[in-house]
UniProtKB/TrEMBL annotation:
Boundaries of every Schlafen AlbA-2 domain copy: 20-137
Protein name: ATPase, AAA_4 family
UniProt organism field: Candidatus Vampirococcus lugosii
Pfam families according to UniProt: HATPase_c_4, SLFN_AlbA_2
Entries under InterPro entries matching the protein: RecG_C_sf, Schlafen_AlbA_2_dom, Schlafen_AlbA_2_dom_sf
Amino acid sequence: MIDLKALLKNLLFISEGEGYVEFKENFDKERDGKNISAISNIALLKGKEFGYIVYGIEDKTKKVIGTKFNPNNEFFGNQNIKMWYSQKITPKLDLEYLEIEYEGKNIVIIKIPSASDKPIEFDSKAYIRIGESTTTLSKYPELERKIWNNEKNKNFEKQLASNNLKVDEILKLLDYDKYFQLSKQELPTETSKFLEKMNQDNLVKLNNDGTYNITVLGAILFARNIENFSIIKRKTIRVITYDGTTKVKRKNDIEGKYGYAIGFEGLIDYIISQVGNNEEITKALRKNTKIYPEIALREFIANAIIHQDFSVTGTGSLIEIYSNRIEITNPGVPLIDTERFIDHPPRSRNEDLASLMRRFGFCEESGSGVDRALINIELYQLPAPKFETFDDFTKITLYTPRPLKDMTKDDKIRACYQHCVLMYIKMEEKMTNKSLRERLNIPETNYPAASKIISDTLKAGKIKEGERSKEYIPWWA
């Protein structure tokens, strides 16, 4: 139970300039409705669970003078003040009306919970306390953004990238035409209908005053220029092409400016233009085939974009192209073990982003994309890709063709494990010496080389023997 006298004594020591405590002599429904909104919002920004309006105290002197305000007897039409505020304040707040006698005078306290996942509005407008004044929150967009971006609301995609915009401002910032093209919807004839559709996918949000907010999801996917949005301007995709196998000499260094959905196809085309052809002739390929299968590039780059940790500040996805490999790096560590990338259903921090990227056809559903990428890498007879995690980033490395004699022991074990997984989950078969020889292009006469790789992979704990002799399955099967 609240010790009301102790609470009041504590509140009397707090300056009104803090914003989350307001002292009044008597009640005014309109003025104090705005104050409830303002105090709830500033309480969140101040890290306070509650704010307060205290009636019966002079605001300057803190002198106890008492109040005639009685929440139970205050009516407007046939509505009590408590019911009236419950309809006027959105989202709804569980306001507490506390009454005490202090120094022989009647004191009333309204205890106001702090805002949670969005600004608190009174009569369709949000307010904020600045010093000792109450004003509309829309005048302070940075504070409004902080409320949307607070620790209680950790879904980065739903946070605000820009707010209180008119329809024509939204259409200048976002490529709405590309959105309708990718979502396979007919372009509306009325401009106002554009944003109704985008609102359904949480790309924009309609405010009660008819203005719109752009969410991070909307900006990160459809920004005409990501740098127009300070919250994501460091999340562009950078591509560096090196001359050779080291970072010593750069040939090209570009950084995308478009939202991911707008720029994805151009990004893939650019990367393909930077790599050479596969000059080796295999049973699956013709001459002049690009070194890396496009399916693999699309899947791994899309996954880097989707699964990045946006809380890692100051950096976005990075693609580095060397003469013998491509390294795809994204901020954050994965939510599943790298060894289970192939068979495990995808888990993402950014579910809305992942859902739309898959819906727009940039990557596959249900984890099948990584499987398909690896199947094509085997078809191209490329070395097995490497999946690595570090303190705050994840890296995937794709390699150019390399003969078996130039592969390290780790390269061979990795290829054996990945091949075993694909056989098990995609072909519903078991890996054998024969299937591994076909994967690594080992002649039949050199079956001992495949046996040695299988033996090393068994010792590494990556695979185990199946029920039948000379057949192998993943360690987790």
